[in-house]
Every structure is written in C-alpha cells, then in structure tokens.
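Lab meeting, action items carried over

1. Structure of the two-component assembly. Owner: GW. Status: complete.
Input record:
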Amino acid sequence: MSPIRVGIIGLGNVGGGALRILADNASLINRKLGAELRVAAVCSRSIESKAPEELSAFPEARRTTDWREVVESPEVDVVAELVGGTGAAGEIIEAAIARGKSVVTANKELMAARGAEIWSLARQAGVRLAMEASVAGGIPIHSVLREGIAGDRIEALLGILNGTCNFILTEMERRGESLETVLAEAQRLGYAEADPTADVEGYDARSKLSLLAALAFGVQVKPESIPTEGIRRIRDVDFLYADRLRHTVRLLAAAEQTPDGLYLAVRPALLPKSAILANVSGSYNAVWVRGAHGADTFYYGRGAGPTPTGVAVVSDLMNVARELMMGGPERVSPFAHAELEPGSPADIGGEVRPYYLRFRVRDRPGIIAELASILASAQISVDAVLQEPSEAKDDLPFVVTVEPAPRRSVEQAIERMSALDFLVDKPLALPFEKGLES
Amino acid sequence: MSPIRVGIIGLGNVGGGALRILADNASLINRKLGAELRVAAVCSRSIESKAPEELSAFPEARRTTDWREVVESPEVDVVAELVGGTGAAGEIIEAAIARGKSVVTANKELMAARGAEIWSLARQAGVRLAMEASVAGGIPIHSVLREGIAGDRIEALLGILNGTCNFILTEMERRGESLETVLAEAQRLGYAEADPTADVEGYDARSKLSLLAALAFGVQVKPESIPTEGIRRIRDVDFLYADRLRHTVRLLAAAEQTPDGLYLAVRPALLPKSAILANVSGSYNAVWVRGAHGADTFYYGRGAGPTPTGVAVVSDLMNVARELMMGGPERVSPFAHAELEPGSPADIGGEVRPYYLRFRVRDRPGIIAELASILASAQISVDAVLQEPSEAKDDLPFVVTVEPAPRRSVEQAIERMSALDFLVDKPLALPFEKGLES
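Predicted assembly:
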C-alpha cells in the first residue's frame, strides 16, 4: 500500500499537537490504517525562526513558509488547514480542493460561516473534507452524529461548548468570586484570551452550535442568526441563589426541534445539580443528545488544548486516508486496527489498588487482631476499620479498608483467612477505582 | 444513485427496533445518505404466525422463514444478522460473506469469540463488516474508537457494560434491599432474564470487554481468559459501608495498558460518588476512556433496548451503504447529510421554560407588589421569592422564580420593568434547563 502523504499548514497549538501525535503514535497509526500516514510537508510563517520541537521527528518533511508550496505539491494527498480564522484559511482550503487534494480542518469559524459552500466545492472535485476538530476538540462529536448514531432522528441537543466560560462559571461557583476576578485570573493562566469577547459573549459557542445544527439536523444556519447571550451579567450572587434551588449556572448551547421549527440558542441557564451536564466543570466540554429512537446519549471530554484537538485532526487524517485507500478492498476494520494480534490479558495479580474487605463474622474477641496479623504478614497496611452498630452477633458484618496492595497479595491473604473459624463466609474484596471525578 | 438493498435476518427485539427506525426515519436516512436504503428481504422463523407490526411499512420486502433465501438473493447487498448467539448466526454471516454480501451484526458473543476470523473472511471477500450494536447498544463506542479518536493511543478504559447488573446494583443502593429481592423484581419487569447467569456472573460484560480490547488495543483476547467476577456476593450492607466511604459499588469492565501487559478484568469495584461513572444509574451503560493525548473522554447512553440498539444497526447499515457507494465521489458528508438546507432558527419566543429572575434593587416598600403585578399582567405566575439576608439596601439582590412561561412573555415583562426607578440594572432572566438527570 502506498503511503498517504499529508501536508500540514499552521504550526500553532493545534498543528504542534497534531505533529506530536503523528510522531508519538506513528506505528500505532500505521497499524490501524494498514498503510503509512506520512508527513510530507509542513508550513508555518515562523518555521525558520522558531520551528517547534515536534518537527524534529520529521526530518524528511519539506519545510516552507509559503502555504502555496504545500497545496501545489504533487507530493501531498491531504492538506490539514490549521491556520484558523476566516482569512487565509479559506483561500488555503479552496486552493487545495481546486488541486484535487482532500482537506482536514479544525476551523469552526470558517466552517460555520462557509462550510456548506466548501463542502459543495469538495464534492464537485471528488475530494474528502473532514472537520472533527472544529467543535469540542477532545470529543468526537462529528463522528458520533455523522456515523455513530446516523440512523437516529435527533430531537434536541444541549452542549457546554466553550471551555473558557465553563472554567469561569465553575470557578465563580467554587470560590464565590466575581466574574471580573476569575476572568482576570483565567487570562493570567492563559485559559482566556487578552480579548475574551468571542468566548465571554458566546460567539465561539454560537459558531459551534451552528455546526452541530448542520450535523444533527441538516440545516445551514448563519451563526449571527442564533439568539446569543454571553455570561457577562452573571454575578456571584446567582450561584448562591442557584444553590438554594439545588441548581447551578452554565453557558448552554441548545438546539431543539419544535412544532414552531428549530429552536437554537446560546445562553446561560440554570441546570439541576443532579444533571450530568451540571457536573461538567473547568474547561471540559460536553454534549447531551436526545434521539427519537436511541433516547439520551452524552459525550464528554476536553474542549480544547493542543493534543486533544490534535487527536481530532489526526483521526480525521486517518479517516480520509482510509477513504483514499478504498479503491481496493481496504476498509476501516470494524476492529479499528487493520490486523488484530492474538493476545491474552496480562496476569492481573500485579495490579495495585486500595481494597475494601468486607467480613461476616461470628463475633468474639480477637477477630481484628487475627485478621490484621494475616494482612500484615502479606505486607498489606490497614487503612480503617468500619463497623455499623448491629445486634447480629452470629452474622456481624464489618469492613476493613487497606492501603494500595497488589491484587495477588490481597487474594493470598483472603485465602489464608478462609481457615478462620469465626468467618461466616469468604471475605469480599473490592478494589477502589477512581473513575472520572465529576 | 441506485438503492442499497438490505436483508434483515432475525425479527426479535433488535430486528423489530431496526425495522421501526428504517420505517420512521426513511426520508431522513435517504437524505443523509444521498441514496435509498431499501429493505429488500426479511427473515424470521415466525414471520407467518406473528409478523411484527413494523413489517407493514415494507409491503414490497420479500418475507421468508429461511435465512438462506436472504443470503442467496441477488436482490440483497447487505445482510443484517440479528439472530444472536453463536450457532446459526455464524453460518449466516459466513454464507453472506461467501456470496459477496456485506454484513452488519449486533452479535457480541459471536464477534468476541470469532470476530477476527470473520473479519479476515470479509476482507478476503472484499466486503464490509460492521458491529456497532454489539457493545453498549445505545452508545456509538465502536465508531468513537474506530474513527472518532482513532489517532489517540488508548491507555485505559473503564466501562459499565451490563445494564442488568447496573440496574440491580443501583436499586439495591436506592432501596436498601438484597440482590435476591431486586433480581426477582427485575425478572418480573423483564429487565433480567429467567436465567440471569450471563448477566449476573459477568459473562456478558466479559464478551463486550473482549471486543472493546480489540477496538482500543488491537488485540484478540478470548473472553474466557479475562478474570471475571459477577455481582452475586454483593450484599445490601456493602452499599452502607461504601456510602460511609463516599463511594458506591458498580460492576466495572476495566482495561489498562501497564508495564506488565494489558490488564483486563470484569469485577465489582468501589467508585467515588463524585465520579461521573458512579452517576450512571439504572440500565444505562457508560464508557470512560483515557487517551494518551486526548486525555479523558466519557460516553453514556442506553445499553440495550430495541430502538437504541436498532439505531446502532441502522447507523451501521448507513455506513456500509456509504462505503458501497464510494466507487464514485459520493462520500459521507462532513455535515452528516448529503445536502444541507439553508435555514434559519425558529423564533425562540414561543419556547416555554420556568425562569429565574434576579433583581438588584434600591430597597423600599412595595417592590415585590410592583414586580408581581407586571408579571401577572404578562400571565406569568410567581413560583417563589428568595432573598438572602443583606445589609446592602442600595444594591439588594433577590430572586423570583416563575412557573413555565414563553420566553417572549418573560422578555416583555422584563422590558416593562426597565422603567421602574428602584432597579439598579436590568433584571437577569435565566431559563431552567433539565439536562440529563444523573
């Protein structure tokens, strides 16, 4: 299989992140594809003065400060436009399509404003166009709406699509401080831009909602036509009252099919604290989708950042590569990898976790001492002993939590305990898992 | 574009759900595809005695009790195997592939046991194979791992993959009852099978974990080789102790790349209540994925049920159809629909929500009366008035919550209020949104 050759234009945060992933995951990517995804050319205005470190992994890639060289190169099959904005980016994409190259873009603003037109150009030229990174960088929401749940009819969606606003609101809530104070700190930390207008006024979320409306409902809606309110008017006192109502305040992008037509809005709203969306904090993004047949689904991940967005760009490059390869019987494997390796799981005995050990005993003095001595001889440290009041002296439950220990040691200790006459049955050992903190 | 012709074998829950979606969403599906997805044949052992209602939408489809007629028909391009199990299902899929037909399956057991072999047959025959419905029916996790985040290197995943066990555990927790009691009720309600062994002992989750391991790590692992513990030994008292530790108990399917190799396990474990996974209750499923570059993502939805699983089957049929169409420049649109319609959002003024109205006032008697009178004249009913103690008589905040009202009425009332001399600034109106209750 010949390699699929990629030209990357723009080496800012997203371009740098994509390059890092292409370098780190090269063999994995090739194994999933069943072909080589090769970085053939890279372009950045400052490539000579400050080439990013990631570039050193691609010594053979052509370097240029002129995007036209990438777009016109016969050595490039797919162009990744990672410049952003609605200026040069549009020119780059049009020129690439005109030269028969497929395009991957992370550009929400351009795609929200001119996406349908650009897709029409791509279709006429017979090339591919992909834009997973344009909404909620770390969440594959395009893939989900385009393919994963393509068969469903979407009734509504509700998203937290702007990480900066979500960070500001959750910090206001957590610390009881004003928007101005939190925004200033976000700017100092680099979470908010010097001019935060696009985020704080909801314009960024509005562009993303326009793209999600296209994906979910097949309509092309101008971002400016979407009723939009930002978070400027939210004050610390609103979190106090919201809390009294067992709610919180989030900037939500909402779309809903109604008898009146498609409602679209970006605005701060109250969400019950028990809602999964209300538990999305910091700079995370999330989208909740209500399908007529699949009912509720929910997607959560990083909204931005070099490598989460880079993952979206690289995944798009892989998907476009697969399609370019599809002249032959090559097909994206239903197993995600072109070939599977026969394997067996590793011996999980070495896995280290804190454990919850629950005992049922016939009560008598000395029980804790005997159990603790077995645990100690297995090098397992007791963390706490919990016992609820109970009258059931013949079948008394209590719990010992232990510090992180290998599963193997815990199993051996439990085995040794099975000879103890005061036990009603074999002790139950459950590991503590962290899950994703909400 | 010629139609893509589908043969459906098996009209149980999943087959019936898929047919219903194909009927309900026919025009939407064709619009997304840019071609017709046509049900050409259906097969079920009892098709004559009890044809499902959904079949009436497809009067032209050939009906048969013999799957060979579907697999051998020159009128069928794609076969959906919805029979389940490892018996006839395997024969059906092999026969379909041997006759050059692409296959969509919902069969976790068969694909976990023989998936790599079947994929190899499909590849040799140059046909497509898709199995989104085989794990967590309502969550497009195959699509996510195969395409959406294909560029990332997965480090770990943690899933709630068995809805029956999750239902039992959350009911035990909620009601403080024993596993036996809750299981008996789940059986009565049809949430658990008469023989619940496959669910309760973790075998179902184990097959699904084997498939997720293939998708995430490219390894082919026999389900029987995965260390597996079911939920039989969990007692009501464990939820009591877990709660004291601010944790809960869930049946987790876990995969983790470690220096020792790939750890895989299905077992009950303790999860902190603050973890998003811990908030997955009832028969829902969820998968949390840790990627080396995209960091954490989380996917949530229905684990089973006729239409959620049907959505997965129909989405697969659409994806296979798109690939079959890909001889020409037809391509799955990056906008999910073959064409976008120009559109504008509906006037959101008719949207009805309860509202949170926050006022800042210069305190004096009669304020509530004046505000309430304006609300009343706009047909808006006050729900509650909240006021925190405050000394700031010149800029006193308080909140009025109101019963559901059209956005338009709320905006008009706020407009009328702007003339009131005691207001420090324009009142803030936030709608209450429900989100997804966790």
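2. GW to write a short summary for the group page. Key points so far: Residues 141-303 of chain A form a domain with the Dihydrodipicolinate Reductase; domain 2 fold (CATH 3.30.360.10). DSSP finds 14 helices and 17 strands in chain A.
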